[in-house]
């Protein structure tokens, strides 16, 4: 009986270096597929924390299954490794494109396909590393083997975790990012085919399989824009005229019978046909109330609202000297200050000399700044996840209170008091917990239905009945006070304060709007 002898320690040779390089690529590719699936899940299903948590948990569980299954692979290790690489290259590389298409053409199957693909890819990735380690044992002593493999594995994960949000997705988009790393997995398979050419049986069949996988990925790369455009055209109904993925969100602009519509992560932000109702209701109650109190507001801050529509309404007041727009995503302010069609929609507001654009997190901006403002317009997306939900907490409104002048007014867009009644009044309760007075009101916006807003201030607020700026299409001095009247089905209810430590608003919002979508 023969026994396998332990190799002696020595400097890594070409085979070891090549195998360790493959570990780096394998780790990078696996993490990309995991991140792409989680990002797409957050775009489609909302609540990014929940989606990332469940996708990552499922993926890690699947890797454990793959590692356990690897014990049953005993022969032809290089050939098995090559086959696994080709499967990962094909399935993982196409994963984002397949999910895009599923969301558009089979929305009911999206969740099942998402977790099915994550389980499959995770299992295959879990098979890879044990096989590489067993192949490397021929050349590397055990004490060096584990440390070297894990080092390259973690380095690959680190590289991708930085590159994915900062470069890969913004530059390539999710579909091409998946395909790029699928091509990397295919490259590892070709390398394995050459490196172990003397050990692999039926080399011609393996080579043909590798060529077919490579060809499929290259064809998908060439068609990536058409795939995502077709999927989004189907999902959004109207023609997609602009689509961009930033590190923070998926920005899609469509054009149809009702004009342009903006979607962020699949959620409608405005429709050209009736956005004037929303933005007039958002801005003019507080601006006109301040003006009635003795002079127009001179310093105004707009938090969120990177499309420039709220800024457009603020600039109707000639007494305004400076508007500070705080928008996290520079892609939004760049698009709406450079694209001709979008500049027309916001009346070139973002190019006004009175407007200063600050691309940063609004929470941090309030925390670090010292400037005071006469009016603050808070125009964030709805609290669909915890990263946005923090902007609806008592801590956020306490910071807002510090930056609002004693005679000033702030206004917060606050979801629908009809569809999400508890969510709406949770925001009111939270603002009051931060020491501010509130004046809730609502307006009908056809694209959204009945929509809510809340005035926050240090002093009592009374709706203005004085003349409003010229050119408004919705509000008049007679109709403005009527917005503050609530019927019985939208009347105030007892709610809990939304804090950073509990984020109850995100859960409430998801429950209330989830009932509508079912």
Give a short overview.
Catalyzes the irreversible transfer of a propylamine group from the amino donor S-adenosylmethioninamine (decarboxy-AdoMet) to putrescine (1,4-diaminobutane) to yield spermidine. This protein has 518 residues and is an alpha/beta fold. The chain has 16 helices and 11 strands.
Structural write-up:
The chain crosses the membrane at residues 17-43, 49-69, 81-106, 112-133, 145-168, 174-195, 207-224. The active site is at 379 (proton acceptor). Its main location: membrane. The protein has 518 residues and is an alpha/beta fold. The chain folds into three domains: 14-234, Up-down Bundle (Growth Hormone, Chain: A), CATH 1.20.1250; 239-269, no CATH class; 274-517, 3-Layer(aba) Sandwich (Rossmann fold). The protein is built from 16 helices and eleven strands. It has helices at 14-45, 48-69, 77-105, 110-136, 142-195, 203-222, 224-236, 275-292, 309-314, 330-338, 340-345, 362-368, 386-389, 394-403, 421-433, 504-517; strands spanning 239-245, 250-256, 259-264, 267-271, 299-304, 322-326, 355-358, 373-379, 404-413, 437-445, 449-457. The chain has a seven-stranded mixed β-sheet. Strands 1-2-3-4 form a four-stranded antiparallel β-sheet. The radius of gyration is 28 Å and the shape is elongated. The N and C termini lie far apart (67 Å). The mean pLDDT is 87.
């Amino acid at each position: 009986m023969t026994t396998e002898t332990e190799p002696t320690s020595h400097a890594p040779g070409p085979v070891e270096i090549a195998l360790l390089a493959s570990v780096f690529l394998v780790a990078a590719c696996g993490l990309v597929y995991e991140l792409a699936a989680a990002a797409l899940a957050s775009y489609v299903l909302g609540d990014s924390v929940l989606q990332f948590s469940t996708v990552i948990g499922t993926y890690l569980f699947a890797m454990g299954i793959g590692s356990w299954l690897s014990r049953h692979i005993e022969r032809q290790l290089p050939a098995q490794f090559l086959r696994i690489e080709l499967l990962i290259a094909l399935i993982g590389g196409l994963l984002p494109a397949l999910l895009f298409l599923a969301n558009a053409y089979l929305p009911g199957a999206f969740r099942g396909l998402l977790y099915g693909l994550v389980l499959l890819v995770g299992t295959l990735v879990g098979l890879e590393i044990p096989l590489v380690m067993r192949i490397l044992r021929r050349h590397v002593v055990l004490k060096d083997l584990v440390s070297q493999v894990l080092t390259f594995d973690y380095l690959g994960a680190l590289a991708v975790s930085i590159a994915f949000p900062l470069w890969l997705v913004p530059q390539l988009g999710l579909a091409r990012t998946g395909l790029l790393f699928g091509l990397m997995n295919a490259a590892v398979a070709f390398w394995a085919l050459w490196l172990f050419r003397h050990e692999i049986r039926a080399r011609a069949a393996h080579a043909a399989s590798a060529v077919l996988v490579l060809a499929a990925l290259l064809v998908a790369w060439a068609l990536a824009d058409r795939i995502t455009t077709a999927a989004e055209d189907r999902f959004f109904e109207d023609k997609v005229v602009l689509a961009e993925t930033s590190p923070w969100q998926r920005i899609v602009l469509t054009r149809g019978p009702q004009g342009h519509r903006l979607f962020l992560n699949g959620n409608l932000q405005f429709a050209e046909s009736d956005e004037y109702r929303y933005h007039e209701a958002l801005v003019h109650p507080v601006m006109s109330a301040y003006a009635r109190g003795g002079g127009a507001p001179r310093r105004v801050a707009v938090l969120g609202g990177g499309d420039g529509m709220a800024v457009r309404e603020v600039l109707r007041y000639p007494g305004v000297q400076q508007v500070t727009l705080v928008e996290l995503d520079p892609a939004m302010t760049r698009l709406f200050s450079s694209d001709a069609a979008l500049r027309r929609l916001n009346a070139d507001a973002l190019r006004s000399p009175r407007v200063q654009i600050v691309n940063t997190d609004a929470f941090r901006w309030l925390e670090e700044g010292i400037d005071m403002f006469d009016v603050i317009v808070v125009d964030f997306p709805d609290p669909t996840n915890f990263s946005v939900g923090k902007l609806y907490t008592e801590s956020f409104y306490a910071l807002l209170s510090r930056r609002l002048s004693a005679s000033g007014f702030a206004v917060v867009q606050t979801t629908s008091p009809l569809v999400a009644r508890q969510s709406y009044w949770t925001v009111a309760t939270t603002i009051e917990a931060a020491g501010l007075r509130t004046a809730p009101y609502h307006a009908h916006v056809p694209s959204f239905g009945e929509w809510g807003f809340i005035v926050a201030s240090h002093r009592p607020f009374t709706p203005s009945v004085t003349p409003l700026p010229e050119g408004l299409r919705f509000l008049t001095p007679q109709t403005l006070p009527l917005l503050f009247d609530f019927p019985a089905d939208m009347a105030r209810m007892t709610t809990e304060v939304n804090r950073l430590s509990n984020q109850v608003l995100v859960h409430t919002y998801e429950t209330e709007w989830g009932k509508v979508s079912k």
